[in-house]
């Protein structure tokens, strides 16, 4: 009888296939399976000699090929397919077997599936995996959540296949239940904000500084040698430098300006609204994609709605440096907001998230990997109970140094009619956060006027209501 496999992977599209190859290349015997059996056959033909694989045509064969207790990674399309696979697998498994959902599942679904598996004596883990196709093969960032004992049994494999930075694997147990998928969701949300900020910088460099795509590509290449050094800044330089084979124009100039999305940014924004956490950068990034998709409406509006036509009005070199600083400051705000959201979720769900560890495992393998994450890791090492990253001396100073440039960029873009929702909302958040007294007193006054919603006073405890429609006198309500 053939030797049993240490782990199984079902779902052999790009992510599952590459994760399975990554495991096998590190010496773990892997059983592979896909709903459409021709994909399993293709996988075995293309990669079967890369490592100790067992190809299985049916789920029963797949389950039988595994050592017990079994460990099965499900890497199928997020949503109903994950439930379908769990439903089919559950009757074939034994108590104590482990199902790992490594796709981009929504965290409440993960909690529900964990409960479903627990009722059947199975152990379930929701594991976030970032890094795309290449990361899955060469070393992703892995955010495992769920049963800690189950994690202890698969830790050896997950840490072996993860990216490594400074001898530290980009994988650590995140927390119970849906915590792993939650952290992956916020990671993706931050990725939305990062990408939107880059797009706004590109827009300003194109339409205000008057630079071509290859010229902007060189600027990003240079930015990647400083504070902004990151995977996304690096690949922006590469994308902008690419020439279209068909037309000879820069490729970006022939790509349709409609951004698509799969939902993780939207989930992050919705969750922030539910938690009551201000998450302006990521949320504006989601809305900017939504606005971009209204292409026909925008085309009609472009010849109807009035506004300035952007064009260079300032020294180009100064403007480029201002945009770099505005990008960095806005990025700090987006991360400060994302980490504040994870802190709030951790408190609400008793997850006990180690936010410094999240910054540590995002330093390699994933899409938002960046030098900058070392600063965030250090911030949480020094101040584990930090409310907001902006309050750490390094970030306080970084934003203080950048703020004049940031304000100039927002003012210039506004005057010249270039939409910068992420730059400007980040700056407004910063200005709102640093004010001891904002204008919400008036909001409370208005709410009390039209709905008797009451208000609190600065000079005495309790709640009050003014009899606006009667004699205008104030009454204490509690
Ligand atoms: P897809 O998200 O495109 O899913 C395709 C896989 O799902 C195929 O193996 C397909 O089997 C299987 N599947 C479907 Br669809 N419905 C099924 C069902 N009812 N029962 C069983 N299998 C079913 O694959 P992917 O792009 O490799 O992504 C996998 C997961 O990883 C997703 O959750 C994704 O969001 C996440 N993720 C993707 C990336 C990325 O860069 N692509 C990065 C990080 C995370 P078939 O061959 O029989 O149709």
Automatic annotation (TrEMBL):
InterPro entries in UniProt: 6-PGluconate_DH-like_C_sf, 6PGD_dom2, 6PGDH_C, 6PGDH_Gnd/GntZ, 6PGDH_NADP-bd, 6PGdom_BS, NAD(P)-bd_dom_sf, Pgluconate_DH
Protein name: 6-phosphogluconate dehydrogenase, decarboxylating
UniProt pathway annotation: Carbohydrate degradation; pentose phosphate pathway; D-ribulose 5-phosphate from D-glucose 6-phosphate (oxidative stage): step 3/3
Residues annotated as domain 6-phosphogluconate dehydrogenase C-terminal: 180-469
Chemical reaction(s) catalysed: 6-phospho-D-gluconate + NADP(+) = D-ribulose 5-phosphate + CO2 + NADPH
Annotated residues for binding of NADP(+): 11-16, 34-36, 76-78, 104
EC number assigned by the record: 1.1.1.44
Active-site feature positions: 184 (proton acceptor), 191 (proton donor)
First-level EC class: oxidoreductase
Function statement: Catalyzes the oxidative decarboxylation of 6-phosphogluconate to ribulose 5-phosphate and CO(2), with concomitant reduction of NADP to NADPH.
Superkingdom field: Bacteria
UniProt-recorded Gene Ontology molecular function terms: NADP binding; phosphogluconate dehydrogenase (decarboxylating) activity
Residues annotated as binding substrate: 104, 130-132, 187-188, 192, 262, 289, 447, 453
Family: Belongs to the 6-phosphogluconate dehydrogenase family.
Any single GO BP term: pentose-phosphate shunt
């Amino acid at each position: 009888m053939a030797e049993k496999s240490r782990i199984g992977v079902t779902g052999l599209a790009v992510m599952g296939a590459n994760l399975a190859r990554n495991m096998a290349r590190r010496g773990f015997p892997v059983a592979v399976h896909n709903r459409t059996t021709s994909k399993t056959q293709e996988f075995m033909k293309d990669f079967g000699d890369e490592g100790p694989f067992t190809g299985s045509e049916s789920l029963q064969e797949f389950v039988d090929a595994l050592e017990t207790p079994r460990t099965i990674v499900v890497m199928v399309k997020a949503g109903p397919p994950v439930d379908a696979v769990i439903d089919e697998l559950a009757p074939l498994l034994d108590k104590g077997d482990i199902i790992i959902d490594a796709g981009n599942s929504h965290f409440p679904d993960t909690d529900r599936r964990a409960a479903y598996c627990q009722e059947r004596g199975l152990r379930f883990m929701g594991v976030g995996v970032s890094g795309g196709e290449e990361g899955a093969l060469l070393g992703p960032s892995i955010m495992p959540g769920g049963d800690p004992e189950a994690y202890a049994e698969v830790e050896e494999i997950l840490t072996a296949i993860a990216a490594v930075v400074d001898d530290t694997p980009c994988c650590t147990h995140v927390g119970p239940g849906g915590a792993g998928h939650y952290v992956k969701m916020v990671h993706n949300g931050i990725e939305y904000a990062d990408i939107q900020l880059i797009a706004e910088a590109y827009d300003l460099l194109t339409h205000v500084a008057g630079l071509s795509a290859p010229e902007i590509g060189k600027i990003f290449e240079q930015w990647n040698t400083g504070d902004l050094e990151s995977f996304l800044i690096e690949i922006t330089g590469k994308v902008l430098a690419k020439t279209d084979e068909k037309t000879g124009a820069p490729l970006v100039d022939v790509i349709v300006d409609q951004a698509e999305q799969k939902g993780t940014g939207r989930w992050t924004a919705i969750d922030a609204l539910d938690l009551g956490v201000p998450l302006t950068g990521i949320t504006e990034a989601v809305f900017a994609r939504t606005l971009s998709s209204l292409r026909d409406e925008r085309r009609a509006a472009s010849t109807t709605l009035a506004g300035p036509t952007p064009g260079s009005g300032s020294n180009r070199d100064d403007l480029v440096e201002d945009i770099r600083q505005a990008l960095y400051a806005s990025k700090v705000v987006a991360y400060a907001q994302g980490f504040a959201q994870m802190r709030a979720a951790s408190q609400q769900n008793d997850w006990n998230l180690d936010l410094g560890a999240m910054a540590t495992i995002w330093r390699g393998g994933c899409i938002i990997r960046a030098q900058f994450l070392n600063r965030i890791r250090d911030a949480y090492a020094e101040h584990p109970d930090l409310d907001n990253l902006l309050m750490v001396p390094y970030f306080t100073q970084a934003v203080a140094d950048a703020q004049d440039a940031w304000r100039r960029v927002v003012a210039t873009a506004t005057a010249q009619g270039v939409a910068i929702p992420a730059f400007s909302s980040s700056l407004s958040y910063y200005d709102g956060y640093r004010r001891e007294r904002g204008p919400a007193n008036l909001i409370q006054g208005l709410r009390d006027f039209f709905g008797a919603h009451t208000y609190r006073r600065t000079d005495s405890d309790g709640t009050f209501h003014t009899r606006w429609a009667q004699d205008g006198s104030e009454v204490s309500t509690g």
